Amino acid sequence: MTVADSGKDADTELAEIATFGYERARDELVNVVKMLEQGGMDLDDSLALWERGEALANRCEEHLAGARTRVENALARSETGSD
After folding, report:
1. CA nearest 24: which of 54, 76, 51, 63?
2. Residue 30 and residue 57: Cα distance in Å, rounded?
3. Is pLDDT at 11 greater than 50 in this prediction?
4. HEC states along 42-56?
5. I need a labelling partner for 51 at 20 to 30 A (CA). Which of 44, 70, 76, 83 fits?
6. CB 52 within 8 A of CB 17
7. Which residues contact 55 (CB under 8 A, 6 or more apart)?
């Protein structure tokens, strides 16, 4: 089965990624990278997989940015409390 034959519209798949938690997005990104490194796909499938990988990487970045903000806020609160 190819990426194009997965039965889901590409836009729907990419929109679904917005609901993924960090670990799921990271794990799927690892799989996408492995598949791209193996090669052997036609150009359209490779591009679709690359687009999915980009969306997964962006989702991971969103989670990491949120975590970074939470840590910074917690540190700021603790500094304010100790003054």
Report:
1. 63
2. 10
3. yes
4. CHHHHHHHHHHHHHH
5. 70
6. yes
7. 14, 17
72 in Cβ contact with 34 (< 8 Å): no
State the Cα–Cα distance between residues 32 and 36, nearest whole angstrom. Answer: 6
Contact between 29 and 62 under an 8 Å Cβ cutoff? The reply is no
Q: Which residue has the tokens 């940015």?
A: 65
Distance CA 36, CA 80 (A): 48
Name the pLDDT band for 35 (thresholds 50, 70, 90). Answer: very high
**Residue 50 CB-half CA count within 13 A:** 10
What global pTM score does this model have?
0.79
Q: Are 49 and 32 in contact (CB under 8 A)?
A: yes
